Amino acid sequence: MTEKSPGESTPEAKVGFLARLKRPPQCSMARMIVIGVLGGIVIWGGLNTGMEYTNRTEFCLSCHTMKTPYEELKKTVHYSNRTGTSVGCADCHVASSKEPFDYARKMTQKVFASKDVIGEILGTIDTPEKYEAHRLTMAKRVWAQMKAADSKECRNCHKFDKMDTTKQKDRSVVKHEGAMQDGKTCIDCHKGIAHKPVHHLLEDDASKTATMDTPAAATSPPSAPAAIDRTAAPTPIPGSATADVSGTKAPATTAAASTVTQVAAPPAETKPSKAEPTAPVRSGGSVAAGIDWSKVPSRPIKLFYPGQASLEWVMNKADHSSVTDIIEKKRACARCHSGDANEIGNAIVAGKPVGVSKSILEPSPPAGKVGFIPVDLQIAHDGNKIYFRYEWVPPKNTGNKADPKNEVKLTLMFDGGGTVPGAEINGCWNTCHTDLRTMKDATDDKKTKYLKGADLASGNFMDLLQFRSGKGEKPVDGWVGNSRTMDGGKTQFKAEGKKEGNKWVVVMERTLAAAGGKGDHAIAPEKIYYFGFAIHEDFSNARYHYVSLGYQFGLDKDDPATKNYINVQKQ
Fold this sequence. Notes:
Layout: H1 11-22, H2 26-55, H3 57-61, H4 67-73, H5 89-93, H6 102-122, H7 128-148, H8 152-155, H9 170-182, H10 186-189, E1 281-283, E2 299-304, H11 311-314, H12 323-328, H13 333-337, H14 341-349, E3 353-354, E4 359-360, E5 372-381, E6 385-392, E7 409-414, H15 423-426, E8 462-468, E9 476-480, E10 484-485, E11 494-500, E12 503-511, E13 529-536, E14 546-547, E15 551-555, E16 565-570
Parallel strand pairs: 5-16, 15-16
Antiparallel strand pairs: 1-11, 2-5, 3-4, 5-6, 6-12, 7-8, 7-13, 8-9, 9-10, 11-12, 13-14, 13-15
């Protein structure tokens, strides 16, 4: 055989080379795609692994300044709760979901987070003092980011359409309904829930005041005094008379207290014996003799201890987060707080902080004082007179007799049917101010309740009726205008009370007509009246009473959509 030189091609080699030349290009492209995909997976996996590693709370805490907000988080419901769920730093600050483009958001959040790392390195926030100095700036940046993302970080766990409103408090239901209607997002209302709250320090809060248009019939009130512990100076809310929120309970089965004789007030023992009822205390003759109270619907109302909660505090946004809704939507206090008034009273009487500003509204908690009293209220009329019946179980006596003559005083105030600006929202709270005696800004120990811009001629005053349990004490038929006046009414007002066992029953009676008295409001069928009442229990005096939120009533006029409305039916 002839030997071939090394460079000489065989016929077989030539055929293989020609075959390779004829191979379609798709094969090379597919190979490149496979390599690219595999490479991308490797790169993405590496990046994602790094992302998840740096998302760990432990990694965040390696920067020692992050321990400050983490310790704050540990004290909140987001860290420990009854269901055992918990969130870490990344759950709120680098939130993820299953959306396709969420990875880009996570990368963006990482870039923002690098500012904190830089601040740590440069020493901008490396001490608790420096951190506090920059806290609001950092918080505002986070709030803005969450607002821009429609609070995705919150909505990963919380969704409007999955909420069970039957398990929420009244104010939560109202807030969430309003948020959906107004297109609000979670962070609009829920700032400061995981860390030290500083949102009340926002620059614009100090300059915002509560203002509304004043009805033509009323005199515009001047600006209110400075609110408790705040620099803002909100104006009491004037507004038109509007109904706000639902019905009454089934008729009560208890009968009215009847009486024909007047005797001494009950003794001040801790708990009267049920077997030895205290005789009735009568003021002004037989009361409501023709009313069958078993046929009158009963409304349960929680009277709570208010401490130094003034109108100015309630209407200051830096203290009370709902001020905007109160003003813009004319939302009555009872719509949000009728269900949790007991919790508010318990917190205030214990000297605990309340409101977004965490104010202490009771600097000197009275020993033994309870936070609230449940009261059953019934109202009826007969075409000539209107009757109010109150029934409650008093708390245990504390022995602090600021008013030794009267174990109980019960006071009712109401407007003339839209004649007092703001009464449709706050009821008689419009008469409670921060400069009254025993209040925070008091300068006169004799200054009592008053209305800003009061005017008897236009009806801008609150009619006042009061029952007193003391022997020989007469019922009060007065009014609150520029000051409180405890006489002058001519409505043939009568009041009667009886304490039996562990229960008090008080019944009030007055004419529907004003009867020409100074400071008397006529009660007519076509109007809605805004009212509130208070009980001085256990011989108490001044602001150490229990108060209701603002409620409404009308004669023979139903309004089931209004929560704090009572239909007073003719009997």
